[in-house]
Amino acid sequence: MLATNTNWSKVDTSLRLCVKRKIVVVYNIRMSSSLFPEFLKPFLWSADFSKLDKEKNKAYIIFQLLEFGNREAIHWVFESYSVKEIVEVLKSNRGFSKKSANFWSLILKIPKSEMICMTQDWQRPRVKI
Is the CB of residue 49 less than 8 Å from the CB of residue 34? Predict the structure, then answer.
């Protein structure tokens, strides 16, 4: 039997049944939008904030917040993702600046040779031969 209470404290599935005045309305709640605090919005400027998915857009979110985020944003990253996931992004993303990559390699003890952004200068255009 369906509960008539329409105030849910937790979003546990993406599909919810809302019962109001004996009319069942099925609608989709994006779990990802409820997972992102509003203070992250300035750092995730190049994507539609309401459509971001925490798992599908993991690499983008981790990159943006580690590269451009403040203390609060970086704290959120480490609460939301495992160190293994963060290290994986740091090793595979070539968009990190040398300064950020060096900082995170020291903090997380990642050899610079394993970070793609440190192995070749991706920031400068290549010289034409």
Answer: no
Instruction: Fill in the amino acid letter for 74.
Output: I
**Structural domain tally of the chain?**
1
Q: What is the C-alpha separation between 122 and 124, in angstroms, rounded?
A: 6
Residue 25 β-bridge partners: 18
d(CA 22, CA 107): 56
In a domain, 1, yes or no: no
Q: Which helix (H) or strand (E) holds 23?
A: strand 23-28
For the entire predicted model, the pTM comes to: 0.65
Query: What is the reported pLDDT for 85?
Result: 95
Q: Within a domain: residue 62?
A: yes
Distance (Å, rounded) from C-alpha 103 to C-alpha 107? 6
Residue range(s) defining the domain that contains residue 113: 32-119
